[in-house]
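User: Hi! I'm working on a homework problem where we have to compare a predicted structure to a textbook description. Could you give me the structure for the chain below?
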Amino acid sequence: MKNPILNEIKNLVADRDLTLTKLAKMMETRLARKYSLASLSQKLRNGTIPYSEVKIIAELLNYQIIFFDTLKQKRKTTLK
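Assistant: Happy to help. Predicted structure tokens:
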């Protein structure tokens, strides 16, 4: 079974008219260390991308990660 994070990130990247290659370069600049397309793709395919990197990706693409309390039907926490 595929990890849904791969498709979600790919869709967010496409919505910004970017590619995973460009995203990997943006991550490399942001993290100030080597960050390749192969590494990013492998993490997304395997579902092993750290949450800290997902937060950076969201920020680079100008998205916010929001936790929504489905029991109370309201937003609980917004992470930036």
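For your comparison, note the following. The chain has a mean pLDDT of 90. The first helix runs from residue 4 to 15. Good luck with the assignment!
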